[in-house]
Amino acid sequence: MNWIRLSGDDERVGVEISFSMSEARKHRILVQIDSDPQPSVFDAVVAVDAGADHLLSYGGITLEQVPSLVHGAIFTRGPKSLRHTAIFIGGSDVAVGEALLEAVTATFIGPMRVSVMLDANGANTTAAAAVLAARRHLDLSRTRAVVLAGTGPVGQRAVRLLARAGATVALASRSRNRAEAAVSAIDCARGSGTVTPCPTVDDEAMRACLDGAELVIAAGAAGVQLLSRPLLAAATSLKVAIDLNAVPPLGIEGLEAFDHAQRREGLVCYGAIGVGETKMQIHRAAVASLFERNELVLDADEIYELGKQSEGSAVADPA
Ligand SMILES: NC(=O)c1ccc[n+]([C@@H]2O[C@H](COP(=O)([O-])OP(=O)(O)OC[C@H]3O[C@@H](n4cnc5c(N)ncnc54)[C@H](OP(=O)(O)O)[C@@H]3O)[C@@H](O)[C@H]2O)c1
Fold first, then answer.
1. What is the pLDDT along the chain (319 residues), one digit of tens a residue?
2. What spacing in Å lies between the alpha carbon of 152 and ligand 1's midpoint?
3. Structural domain for 92, as ranges
4. How far is the centre of ligand 1, averaged over its atoms, from the C-alpha of 247 (Å)?
5. Which residues contact 212 (CB under 8 A, 6 or more apart)?
6. Domain for residue 184, yes or no?
7. Domain for residue 48, yes or no?
8. Based on the domain organization, do 112 and 141 belong to the same domain?
9. CA distances from 103 to 60, 125, 136 (A)
10. Are residues 23 and 131 in the same domain?
11. Residue 81 belongs to a domain with what CATH number?
């Protein structure tokens, strides 16, 4: 027991101080739930850097296993100490991660809960970092944006964040059906922006999709070029170009992976590694925030809000 008698004259004060000292000494425990057989070392390292004292890593986790893991987290420490325990959900399959998050929150029992964060495949922190990069140069509420390959988990989240910030967003895909399905799946409820599907089946369609846009985010699969240099040059309304693919060939020809607000041909450019810096900061800040309270649920929107708070509200560098 962490009992410190500070004053023999006033035991009540002594008890209170003893309690807070005891609270301060509680170790921060992060329960890492990963749907992949081998839990992500990347997520584990970030967790430690973000201040977790102990990491309990579980791989290959299925929905059926969630209740016992959550019960272990919520029934071991008293209600006032639950903020010292938190859950991180990772894994390469974002859809499974979303289902795990739902299962975790469904297992909480009233106030017997701990904070939880979803960042399966880095999708939430990556999309948030991309939109934050754009926000440094553009007033998103007045921006026309195109998210290339917006059908993937990162792209869909970027589209949603942009729309919620008030942007007019075209969600591009090689397939009209996939674009339409992704638009229907995106819940833009709390925002004033709009999302429309934009098939980019050939160069002509790509030109039409980019016509009038100020922002392009390339969220295509690793090692796939989506936008050639001539098509980029033809998109004269563009002010900011962001590419999330770090594996050559890059998603947007002419950008470099390390670009970080790099000016190229009148465009402000960010490459995947340039965006990655912000992504890492957001990831660490989000994990650290889990231990401040016991009822946080950090998905894409909440993680983006955290990033916004740390960057401030002003448009830093107009494009
Ligand atoms: N920096 C980081 O920490 C970090 C973290 C996560 C992801 N990323 C990067 O972010 C990007 C998006 O990630 P993601 O997981 O959302 O990607 P993804 O699911 O692998 O692919 C996204 C979309 O790319 C399109 N695509 C796939 N193969 C293609 C091909 N051969 N040719 C043209 N288009 C193709 C598909 O769109 P359509 O079929 O609809 O056209 C697909 O929905 C990736 O480059 C990834 O490496 C970076």
1. 333 333 333 333 333 444 454 566 789 999 999 999 999 999 999 999 999 999 999 999 999 999 999 999 999 998 889 999 999 999 999 999 999 999 999 999 999 999 999 999 999 999 999 999 999 999 999 999 999 999 999 999 999 999 999 999 999 999 999 999 999 988 766 578 999 999 999 999 999 999 999 999 999 999 999 999 999 999 999 999 999 999 999 999 999 999 999 999 999 999 999 999 999 999 999 999 999 999 999 999 999 999 999 887 555 567 7
2. 6
3. 11-118
4. 11
5. 144, 237
6. yes
7. yes
8. no
9. 15, 21, 36
10. no
11. 3.40.50.10280
